[in-house]
Amino acid sequence: xxxxxxxxxxxxxxxxxxxxxxxxxxxxxxxxxxxxxxxxxxxxxxxxxxxxxxxxxxxxxxxxxxxxxxxxxxxxxxxxxxxxxxxxxxxxxxxxxxxxxxxxxxxxxx
Length: 110
What we know:
Elements: E1 4-7, H1 9-17, H2 21-33, E2 44-45, E3 51-56, E4 59-66, E5 70-78, H3 87-101
Parallel strand pairs: 1-5
Antiparallel strand pairs: 2-3, 3-4, 4-5
């Protein structure tokens, strides 16, 4: 089964800000592979969270997986800065993003 991969606005901004084209390409390739396998070898579940991370060189990609065939990329940052945000906040943003992306549920009020 193929998963739909969606980017949070923050993840989109972080990818655009990457200065090295080669590193950006490596990260985008790794994210594209999440469509086929959202839990690739080497990915790890974050402690006390439903979020997962994959390593791409010195960068980390934080994502949330919904088994309704949706992967939401929440954060892409250098390994020294990626965990500076509140993971509970990331999880709540992931849940909202997933609800917006599911067919027929985008207009539901919460």
